[in-house]
Design goal:
Length: 293
Amino acid sequence: MKAYVFPGQGAQFVGMGKDLYDNVPQAKEMFEKANEILGFRITDLMFAGTDADLKQTKVTQPAIFLHSVILAKSLSDFNPQMTAGHSLGEFSALVAAGAMNFEDGLRLVAIRATAMQKACESEPSTMAAVLGLEDDKVEEICASVNGVVVAANYNCPGQLVISGAVKAVEEACEKLKTAGAKRALVLPVGGAFHSPLMEPARIELEAGIQKTNLQTPVCPVYQNVDAKPYTDPATIKQNLIAQLTAPVRWTQTVQNMVADGLTSCVELGPGNVLQGLIKKIAPQVTVEGKQAL
C-alpha cells in the first residue's frame, strides 16, 4: 500500500512552492486564494522573503500547509491509500485526503499558528531533542522534574523531543545526559509545542474546528494523538483538538501503517525530514519525496 505523508514546522525554505505558482494555473489560483483568506501576501514571503520571515509561526505553518496541499492537488496520479502528517502536517493530510476543503483547512491552520505564537509569548518555554535513550526512560526522567516538561515528539527509535517550561526542560536535559543520552539539546524554537502549555491555543483552535464541516476522507488518516487510522469525521475532529497539547506519536504511526500494509511512502512538501525518520523506523519501506511536479 502507498501512503502520502506531510511535514510539520521546521521544513520551510525560501522559494518553496514558486515553481507550482509559476507553472500550474490551478496552483496559482489556490495561492492567490490563500493570500485573500490570510489577508496578506504569504506568497511574497514564501517565494522571496527572508529566513526570519518564514520562521514566524504565523507564517511558517500556513506556508508549509500551502506548499504541501497545493502540490498534492496538482499531482495527476494522487491516489492515497493512507495519509499522515507530523503535527501541522496532519492538517495537510486531512485536506489532501478530502476530510476538509482547502479553504477551511487554511483558516484552521491560520488560527492554530496565531494561537500557538500567542501562547509561546505568554510564558518562557522551549523544546529539546533527546538522542540515544529509550522512550520510557525519557518519560520517567521528565516525570521526575519539578515543573512542566513532557515527551512531545516520538520521532523515531532513539530520537525524542521534550517540551515545557524553560527551567524544567533545562533540568531534564541535565538529568537525561547523566542517564546516558548521547545528546539532550535545547532547540531554537518559539515555545513548548505539544505540551500542556499550549492549552490556551487548544481552546482557541477548538472553537474553529467545531465550526468546520468535515467529510469522510477517501482513505484512512493516521492521527498524531494515538497513531491510529480514522475516517469518522466526528472522531477526527476530537483527535485534531487534542493534538495541540498531546505528543506526536510518529514512530508508532509509521509502525501502524506498516502493520496495515504500507510498502511505499511519498513525502509531499518542503524538506525531507519525514523521509529520514521513516527510513529509521521502517527501513523496508520505499521512501521518496516531492517538492515540485
